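call fold(seq) -> tokens
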Amino acid sequence: MSGRSEFDRASERRGLGLERFAFFHVLVGVGLLMTWTVIFGYLAEEVAATSRAAKGEGVSGTFTAHSYVCARRDCSWYGTFTTAGLFGATVEGVELRGDDGHSFDAGEMVSALDVGSPDFVQMRGGSPEWGRSFGAGAFSAITGAIATAMAAMVLWDVYWTRASPESRRRQARERGRPTLRDVADPDRWGWSARPGSSATRVKLARSKKRTFTAAVGLLSLLGALLLFGLLWANFNEEISRAELIAGLWAPLFAIILLGVTIQTLRLVLLPPRMWVTDDEIVIWDGLLLWKVLRIPRAAIAAIHYGDEPRRCPVEDDVAELTPFREELNLALEMRDGISLPARRLRWGNWFWVMLTLRNHVPQTGMPQRGHLVRRLCLRVKEPRRAATDLDRWLGDETSSPPEFAPVDHAHYGMVRTHRGVGGKRIKLKGQLPQPILAEFVNEGPGTLQAWLRRTEFGHGPPVMVCGPKAPPATTVLDDRLVSDKPLAKRFLCVESEGPWTVTISGPERAREFTGSATGSGPEVLAYQGPAGIAVITSPGGQPHRVHLHGPNLTALNNGDPIVSTTALPRANPPPSQSTFAIPAQAILQVTTAGTDWRIDVTPLADADTLAQDAITAPPTGHVRPFEHSITGHNTAVVRYLGPPGPVLFHSGYAFGLLQLDATLAPLRTLALPSGNQKLHLRSNTLLQITGAEGTWSLEETHPTDLAAADH
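ret:
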């Protein structure tokens, strides 16, 4: 059989584990101090009486034996003691010591001395008995040592939760000496520091259950002190000097608890407040902060919601604006460390630190003076809505969104025409700071093909395919297609069955359009309208591909296509449509296999308000909003409306994900077509789904919202 029974193991699993909490140790320590006080008083009285018995001092009298009582191996006579004299006093139920084993009969009287103890008298001429004094002394020493050690361990752990001395001195220098102006400072009083209006409604919350538990914990300490005082006064008609000295800890501890009592009243009567103005967050917490905390919007880097604040590690740069060990649901991440106007521990906040300590680990997330905080964790009501509103407030920009720089192209206004018949290699000399535009005209009966190569007889990617009698086709030539380094020359290899013409130029020869454009085959277009959502349609369901470029032909999205569809294996496929974001002044490179296509652009202001399932002719681009989850089967532009936090992207190995800026230009690549990927999105973020056909989805991975905060 195993060494421990199943019952023992179950008891360990289901135990309360109170021994882990510092408050339990303090409560036990206070109880032991009370016990030590009583034992120490008894010890002092016992030692004094036994010392007088050893010296033969005391009031003479007569002891009358009544009963013989044995406890373990020690037997003693108990009876009545009467002092000598005409008006002798009588005390009943006292013990006779110093009889040295003499035998008595009930009712027999012997001479004895009253040595000042209410419990025993000393037989005249008998030897003193020190055994009980030694036993009481040992028990008193053990009890006092354990009580002192338990209290000292907790106080030591609380002490080491403070900031370093250098940090405290630095903050003291920054603050200066307190003056009367500090009392008159409006930030010192929450009601006077309250702003006129709040841009976002956020309510701080504290658990009523934990507040009640903390109040009960304080009342238990105060009740224990009160009960101790009543019992001591009731059972000690005359308090000796030794007992008075031993009980000095009680009034001192009561004075210390006075600060905790004031803080508890603040906890119950003064709930924390939070206001959000146009340019700062204002937090007033009379329990943890001695004045209002103002955090400028420029000092906040991000808002976090959901699982992340709950996992805030207890580190030097993390503060939890709560006196309890409770679940937090919102965090403000700062750009640089800020100093909080925290109350000092000695004014009562040591009690809350003690409540949060476990296993004597000197760590706490409660704000303390001197700590530089980069992450402030909060508990708020309606955390999802609050995080969403705060993230949008943080992302608001008063300045106009950035625009592309004016066109400055090395080949602007320069046009070079190359003609040939059949196969030929065109040598393009000189470095190309920006890509260039190439227009192909196939005048022969066969198909024209062209490749861009680094060397004359090397290999390179195909850049153009034109059928016979096809309209002029344009494309963008970029050195990055063949090399990662700047080239001094490159070769455009053309093969055809007849005459052809290639025209090299800058972006000014791209066909301009504003709202809609139609075409056939590969072409480069210059969009002249405002930023919007574009839909490209191939009526016959043929594949198409779209690249985005800046006004100077610089590739966006690292040169990868925004849209890339494949041919559907059907006899009569339906029209294929793809949606993508197009910035103002952007250049589009459309690639198809000589088939017709159409592009329609809806300005962003209109695309954001269109219904998701609206049916229009021609197709109208729109932004698909989502909060919890969204799915799709082709490219799309979506706007995330949920709170900042983790989102899972199912790419289906066919789609990628881009983050767009305010101008709808690709800002960064968030995900590649490589399965499931976890992202962190801010509220109101615009996203571009890139890729081909298939199925993709975006789904929030926030944990279930915390239960509604206590009302």
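The chain has a mean pLDDT of 83.
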